[in-house]
Amino acid sequence: MFKFGLSSPHISVTIWKNQSEKHESRPKCSIVGQNPGLGILPIAVEALKITIRNGAAAASIFLSAFFLYSLLAYGKILLLAPTLTDLVSDPTILRKNLEAPPEIDEATRRHIRYFLLLGMADWFLSCVIWVMFLVPTIFLSSDAHTGKKVSTKGLLPRIGARWKRPVITSFFMDLISISITLLFLISIGIISVVAKGFLLVALIMATLILGVFCYLYVDAVWMLSLVVSVLEDGSCGLKAIDRAGELMRGKRLQGCAIKLLSVVTRGTIYMLAFAMSKKIEGATQMPMLMVIPQTFLICAFKFFVFVMFTVFYHECKKRDEGVGAESEVGLYEPIASVEA
What stretches pass through the bilayer (predicted)? Predict the structure, then answer.
């Protein structure tokens, strides 16, 4: 039997104590979550620490991807060189085909088929290397961030068990991205037909700004859904995308900011590569000279982005679990015994 006397000091003290204990036992927010603003810097610092602390494992993954990407780039250059030499040595082929498209000769058809087949092979091999780069990087980053033992020995079985999931998720995200792009183009077309003058310019500018934010958000969800596909059991495809959207609630601006940083960094890398190619344009081996530094920077960029989004996933997960725990907390705890 419980005796409840509202005037009893024992009851009031017990309730106050239980409330304070519950308040102390609530999950604390992570360091990243406590930072004001978008919190990009703490995530970047944590990603850098993970890379430095696990230098041997990170280097093995990075160098493997760098070697495969470099090999693919060199192979593409070597395979394209004979065809490009033929086109440059005989520019009349292109001129004749532009003037009379129906009169495309067999040599030109052969070149077109060759370019298409080479492009498809390059895309397929790039996807294979990307998956073999993505999955171990996410596993490594997750284990290091959560304090688990980091080892490259057990990565191959884990890659074999999980590589299909990010592929399926990417397929659905491709469909979503294509649909959003078509919707964006249709919106621009409707606006250009309906509006005129200043209203036309204002609406197009607003649509473009909205499109940029939409692109950043969709890409952030894409990256987070890839991490979900690799780390969470039974999550791939639309389920992983939905899970990523749930995790990003309350952190959408942070995710978009991380993606914006990655887009700016990637653009800077390509601009540097273009500037370097202009400086050594006269060199006969210019494409070969550009492959190594450009591939190195791109691989380093991809590795760091994978690590950052893995850290971001864990921060979103901590926040999601913390919100869920707080919603289940009652006002009072059961009182085992109350003195009269």
Answer: 56-81, 123-146, 167-191, 197-218, 256-276, 288-313
Residue written as token pair 């003195």: 339
Q: At 274, give phi and psi (nearest 5°).
A: -65, -40
The number of beta carbons lying within 10 Å of the beta carbon of residue 188 is 15
Min mean pLDDT across 53-62, 165-174, 287-296 is at 287-296
How would you write the chain as a 3-class SS string?
CCCCCCCCHHHHHHHHHHHHHHHHHCCCCCHHHHCCCCCHHHHHHHHHHHHHHCHHHHHHHHHHHHHHHHHHHHHHHHHHHHHHHHHHHCCHHHHHHHHCHHHCCHHHHHHHHHHHHHHHHHHHHHHHHHHHHHHHHHHHHHHHHCCCCCCCCCHHHHHHHHCHHHHHHHHHHHHHHHHHHHHHHHHHHHHHHHCCHHHHHHHHHHHHHHHHHHHHHHHHHHHHHHHHHHHCCCCCCHHHHHHHHHHCCCCHHHHHHHHHHHHHHHHHHHHHHHHHHHHCCCCCCHHHHHHHHHHHHHHHHHHHHHHHHHHHHHHHHHHHHHHHHHHCCCCCCCCCCCCC
Does residue 94 have a pLDDT over 50? yes
Looking at this protein, which amino acid is placed at residue 69? Y
